[in-house]
Design brief:
The complex is a heterodimer of chains A (206) and B (98). With 206 residues, chain A is mainly α. Chain A is built from eight helices and no strands. Chain A is 83% helix and 0% strand. Chain B is flat. Classes of the chains: A mainly alpha (206), B mainly alpha (98).
Chain lengths: 206, 98
């Protein structure tokens, strides 16, 4: 009887193990994007001149603006965890909401950026693009795949943080148990790190 | 309860450190945008990647709390980065050293 009681009362929790699990998942993400960075580096190496010309087409200002937005959203996510550690639920919910809004801001910018490119006839398989030299086609192909995959991660991040905000409001995430929020934070910061490398490689190095 | 809260204040990093790191990240973004305008020739890519690495280090250590984690986490991350770098070196041994 005592064992039965024990099994009911005992809540198994291993926060360190949970975080380690999240980190292991992040390593698989690193492999996913790493493969694309390998492709980028080799194609850039064999098509240096054409990558140089193609990169000039990208809007550095919009890229810089999006970098600032994403770095700020990383800050608000870290602050959301700091707030829940201090049992300040409303402040944590505020920072999580702010993170989601900034992520939407990033996507809106991305939408306008891609729209302008589409308007100029530069999109995968377009006539304008296919008439360009091979190196430039490769550059824009990688640009759409890598920033697109990154954008998909931003969308997933929005959903994930949205769920965490709901859980925080419902007190499932609280001062004593906030490892879920930490895991979502780790994911969000990884999305930020990937952008930290995408930004100079596509927008700055011309 | 009050004691617990003061305990929490000591245990967890304050809001200030995150804001400081954020300012550092913005400053480094400014640096990398400015440097991109100057032509360093072959070193342009290297400087951009160096600044990006410093930014990533800050995010990993402070935002992702890697500095406060157990040693195993740090070793795992170092191993992951090591294998990415090894892959790059081996990849380019095929392309650039011929």
């Amino acid at each position: 009887m005592s064992t039965e009681e024990h099994s009911v009362l005992h809540v198994h929790r291993d926060d360190i193990g949970s975080r380690m699990g999240m980190w292991l998942f992040l390593f698989t993400e690193l492999l996913l994007f790493g493969g694309l960075f390998f492709l980028y580096s080799v194609y850039r190496f064999v098509n240096q001149e054409q990558f140089h010309i193609a990169a000039k087409e990208l809007n550095t200002l919009i890229g810089t603006f999006n970098t600032i937005i994403l770095l700020t959203s990383s800050l608000t996510m870290a602050l959301a965890i700091a707030a829940i550690q201090r049992n300040n639920k409303s402040l944590s919910v505020f920072f999580q909401t702010l993170t989601i809004l900034l992520a939407f801001g990033f996507l809106v910018n991305k939408y306008f950026e891609w729209s302008i490119k589409f308007h100029h006839g530069i999109f995968p398989g377009s006539e304008v693009l296919l008439n360009k030299p091979k190196g430039e086609i490769l550059f824009f192909g990688l640009y759409y795949v890598m920033t697109g995959l990154h954008g998909l991660h931003v969308i997933i991040g929005i959903v994930l943080i949205g769920v965490m905000t709901r859980l925080t409001i419902k007190n499932v995430i609280n001062q004593d148990s906030y490892v879920k929020l930490e895991a979502a934070g780790l994911y969000w910061h990884l999305v930020d790190i990937i952008w930290i490398f995408l930004f100079p490689l596509f927008y700055l190095i011309t | 309860m009050d004691q617990q809260n003061t305990h929490a204040e000591h245990k967890y990093p304050g809001y200030g450190i995150y804001i400081l790191v954020w300012l550092g990240l913005l400053a480094l973004t400014g640096v990398t945008v400015t440097l991109a305008g100057i032509n360093f020739g072959g070193l342009t890519v290297a400087t951009a990647l160096l600044v990006a690495s410093v930014k990533s280090f800050l995010v990993l250590k402070i935002f992702m709390h890697l500095g406060a984690e157990q040693k195993a986490f740090k070793i795992f991350v170092l191993v992951a980065i090591f294998f990415i770098l090894i892959s790059f070196v081996l990849l380019f041994s095929d392309y650039s050293f011929i």
